[in-house]
Design brief:
By secondary structure, this protein is mainly α. The protein contains 20 helices and two strands. It has one domain. A two-stranded antiparallel ribbon has the order 1-2. β1 and β2 form a beta hairpin. α14 runs parallel beside α17. The relative contact order is 0.15.
Length: about 425
């Protein structure tokens, strides 16, 4: 018994040290995150912290397949030019630049509730650039508004962001659960209230931009099938949510996303009689993120096996004094702070099991803590230029156009925008789920 306890203690310390080194390296070397996570996962196995027969089952294949399949479908959707047509249709109905930029920001938010945030920025930002060039105004505020808006809606639906997919996998939440969960309003509506609050900020930022704007040439869409695929994905995910968990495979959502991507690729191959679209689509899949997540799943399984997650959970409970509201507040605002400087994917992946452990120790429903974690981590990335991939992408587009945006200029918009969205979400989640 003593030897077994000593081994458990050694494993815990070893796992904790290895995890801390892994996380530091993830922060310091962002371009090598996938390789760091995979190397760390291999060390957890080699050192015997996680048994070899548990490695395969440590990876949430449903999450991996959902992300890969959705990325493929989105690539086909973008290639069809449908997002550009939708943007054109919106702008033609706007009276001036102020409402054109705000409508584009809202459009980016709506699109990013179903499509990757970076892809959304790449689709919508060029429209804002075109407007700015025609009217000879700076595109900086408009691109920043589009970037932070696209990041805001990531927590709205199951497929809106990688963090949402992670929560769905961890808490067994389906597509409809993000709208109504256990008879109460879900994250979708909370995010929309946050979006409405942030519009007030954008109205103030663009209050002087009253120049008229018009679209002379509307984008032409020649293939509507990718749009049908995207809508079909959402519909099938909704239908799958009605099937009881015990009667469907654990990778159901992943099979839906990958299956429809394959349908789209087969059709494109037959239609073009070539493999160019297939090659392009597979290039658009972010394998780096998939490998990062695969490695992180194993690392998290390792620290759970060694008792590190339980130890961290106990520490959080002690700090909060076993007070649920204090713990909720700590999770939300700590998540906002950390996500302002580090990638929220490894952060959320790590904190989900910790949050579940905290709720278990406190004897409370974990939902309010899960929702608080996701809201803080997803919206917190908007605080700084480096806090979210969407922000980095937007600033990269501006740099190519010759605009070097300082952190100060970015945060003039991002800070009030983020605080308005997070504060409203913080209050609503507690009122609904406390």
């Amino acid at each position: 018994m003593l030897i077994r306890n000593m081994k458990g203690c050694v494993d815990l310390i070893l796992a904790l040290v290895l995890f801390l080194i892994t996380y530091v390296l993830l922060l310091v070397l962002p371009n090598y995150r996938a390789y760091i996570a995979l190397t760390s996962a291999a060390l957890f196995v080699i050192l015997g912290i996680i048994p070899l027969n548990k490695v395969f089952f440590s990876v949430d294949w449903n999450v991996i397949m959902m992300i890969a399949g959705t990325m493929g479908i989105v690539s086909l959707f973008i290639e069809s030019k449908m997002p550009s047509l939708l943007a054109d249709m919106i702008i033609t109905r706007m009276p001036n630049v102020k409402w054109a930029i705000i409508s584009l920001s809202l459009f980016a938010g709506i699109i990013s509730a179903f499509i990757d945030n970076v892809a959304t920025v790449l689709m919508v930002a060029p429209v804002a650039l075109t407007i700015s060039k025609k009217l000879k105004i700076s595109p900086v505020p408009g691109i920043i508004a589009i970037s932070v808006s696209s990041n805001l809606q990531g927590a709205a639906t199951l497929v809106g962001d990688t963090t949402s997919i992670l929560l769905g996998g961890h808490a067994n939440m389906d597509f409809l659960d993000f709208f109504f969960y256990r008879g109460k309003l879900g994250l979708f509506w909370i995010v929309q209230i946050g979006a409405l609050m942030s519009i007030l900020v954008l109205l103030w930022v663009f209050r002087k931009e009253n120049q008229k704007v018009e679209v002379k040439e509307r984008t032409v869409v020649e293939d509507y099938f990718p749009t049908i695929l995207l809508v079909g994905t959402i519909v099938l995910l909704i239908l799958a949510s009605f099937i009881p968990e015990e009667k469907k495979p654990s990778i159901t959502n992943g099979l839906i996303c990958v299956g429809l991507m394959v349908v789209g690729l087969v059709r494109e191959t037959a239609r073009s009689r070539g493999f160019e679209t297939v090659k392009k689509t597979f290039k658009e899949i972010d394998y780096f993120t998939l490998l990062l997540l695969g490695g992180l799943f194993i690392v998290i399984s390792g620290i759970t096996e060694a008792g590190v997650v339980d130890a961290i959970s106990e520490l959080f409970v002690k700090v909060s004094g076993d007070n649920v509201f204090l713990m909720y507040t700590l999770l939300v605002w700590a998540s906002v702070f950390f996500s302002a400087f580090i990638d929220n994917i490894p952060y959320v992946a790590t904190m989900l099991p910790v949050t579940g452990g905290i709720a278990n120790l406190m004897g409370t429903d974990p939902t309010v803590l899960y929702f608080g974690l996701l809201a803080g981590a997803t919206l917190g990335g908007n605080l700084t230029p480096i806090g979210a991939s969407a922000n980095i992408t937007g600033l990269g587009i501006l740099k190519k156009e010759g605009y070097n945006v300082s952190a100060k200029d970015f945060m003039k918009i991002s800070v009030p925008f983020t605080l308005a969205a997070v504060t409203s979400g913080y209050v609503l989640i507690w009122l609904i789920w406390r």
